[in-house]
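Summary of Year 1 activities. Much of the first year was spent building the evaluation harness for sequence design. The harness presents a backbone, in tokenized form, and records the residue chosen at every position. We chose the following record to illustrate the format because it has been used consistently in internal testing since the harness was completed.
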């Protein structure tokens, strides 16, 4: 399957590696990025052909599939907007799992989601669309992860955790079993969530508490 990657920053390198090691038959043939300084360069032998205006041209040229190479730290709305744009252009948006990751046969991955190196998605887990499951992350049994969420590298979701749409769970954070993180909330790096996190709230520390505004 020939495929274009939208976004050519650091996260795109991880996406290309996942595509190249995946058990799926993916052939990344181009990247796009809004930064003109990157145009004409290559990442892993794949050319950066221009900005996102090239996406419609590539689709008309018969490229059917796309992956999202845009990462996010704390704000997943730009990734959500790019996902909508690619869908409107008519691209297929396959889920991708790195060859060193493990996804249970009873787990589900939504369109455009990616499971990166060494991550584990356990039995009965449900991962929505356009989710990043970062390197070394553990998504335990029966978790539910909403669309456009980002589970950063090394975080751990205990059994039956609920992560709502657009939430960000930071590096090496831990969410105790049965807890929930609301839509577009942020869990800081290394935090330990022992209570439910309301929508839109940022929590930090151990145990995680709401960050005080300055």
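For this record, the design step produced the sequence shown next.
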């Amino acid at each position: 399957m020939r495929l274009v990657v939208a976004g050519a920053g650091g996260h795109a390198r991880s996406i290309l590696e996942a595509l190249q090691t995946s058990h799926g038959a993916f052939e990344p043939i181009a990247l796009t990025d809004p930064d003109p300084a990157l145009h004409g360069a290559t990442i892993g032998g794949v050319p950066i052909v221009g900005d996102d205006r090239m996406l419609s041209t590539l689709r008309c040229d018969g490229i059917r599939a796309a992956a999202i190479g845009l990462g996010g730290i704390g704000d997943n709305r730009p990734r959500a907007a790019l996902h909508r744009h690619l869908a409107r252009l008519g691209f297929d948006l396959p889920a991708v799992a790195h060859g060193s990751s493990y996804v249970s046969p009873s787990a589900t991955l939504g369109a455009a989601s990616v499971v990166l190196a060494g991550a584990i998605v356990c039995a009965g887990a449900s991962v929505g669309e356009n989710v990043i499951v970062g390197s070394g992350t553990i998504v335990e049994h029966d978790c539910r992860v909403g669309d456009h969420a980002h589970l950063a590298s090394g975080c751990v979701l205990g059994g039956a955790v609920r992560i709502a749409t657009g939430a960000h769970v930071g590096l090496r954070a831990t969410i105790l079993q049965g807890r929930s993180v609301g839509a577009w909330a942020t869990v800081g790096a290394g935090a330990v969530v022992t209570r439910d996190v309301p929508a839109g709230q940022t929590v930090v520390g151990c145990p995680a508490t709401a960050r005080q505004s300055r």
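The longest helix spans residues 10-21. Quantitative recovery figures across the full test set are reported in Table 2.
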